[in-house]
Amino acid sequence: MKRKFVYLKYLNIPNTITGCSLVIGFITLTLIFQQELKLALTLYAFTILLDRLDGIAARKFGMESDFGKELDSLADFFNFCIVPALIAYFLGLNSVLSVLILIAYILSGVSRLAHFNLEGMEEIEGKKYFSGIPTTLAASWFLITLSLLELFNLQHLHDVLLLFFGALAVLMIAPLQCNKNGLLVKSLYLLIPTAIVLLWLF
C-alpha cells in the first residue's frame, strides 16, 4: 500500500494564512523572551489580523473545510490563550495566585473554543452572535491594554493585568451575546493600530 502525503490536500490559501499566524505567534514569544516588547506586540497584532483574513479567504475562494475549521481553532488556542498567558507570566505574573488566574484564562478559552466548535454562533434577526466573548476579542483587549500600560509606564502593571485576565476568564464563558459584527468588534480596527502606532511614537 502506497503511503501519500495526505496533508498536502489541505494546503490552500486560508490554511496557509492560519499557519502563518501560528508562526508569528511563536515568534512573538521568542521576542518577549528577548525583552523586545514593542516588536513582539506589533507582530502579535498580525496574528489577530490573520485570524480574520483566513476566514475571509476561505469564503472568498470557496475553500471552507472541516480541516480548516479545526486548524483555525487550534491556532486560536495557541495564539489567543497560550501566548497571552505566557507573555503575562514572563512579565511577572508568576505568583501562585497569578498562575491560577492564568490557568483559569486558558481553561476558559479552550472551553469557549470547544463550545463554539459544537454549537457555532446563534443567529437572531439576521445577526450572528457569539456565546461569550471570543478568544480573538479577549486577546485584542489584552494587546491594547498591555500596549497602553507600556506606553504610559503605569504603575501596578501586575495588578492591572491580573484583574484583566480574571475578568476575561469569566467573560469568555459568561452567558452573554457578542455581536460578530457589532461595534465592540469593529472598534478593534481602530483601537489596535492606534495602540501599536502610539507604542512606537512615544
From TrEMBL:
GO molecular function, one term: phosphotransferase activity, for other substituted phosphate groups
Transmembrane segments: 12-33, 77-108, 129-148, 160-176, 183-201
Name of the protein in question: CDP-diacylglycerol---serine O-phosphatidyltransferase
Pfam families: CDP-OH_P_transf
GO cellular component: membrane
Superkingdom per UniProt: Bacteria
Similarity remark: Belongs to the CDP-alcohol phosphatidyltransferase class-I family.
Alphabetical UniProt keywords: Membrane, Transferase, Transmembrane, Transmembrane helix
Organism: Desulfosporosinus hippei DSM 8344
Protein's UniProt keywords contain Transport: no
Keyword Transmembrane helix: yes
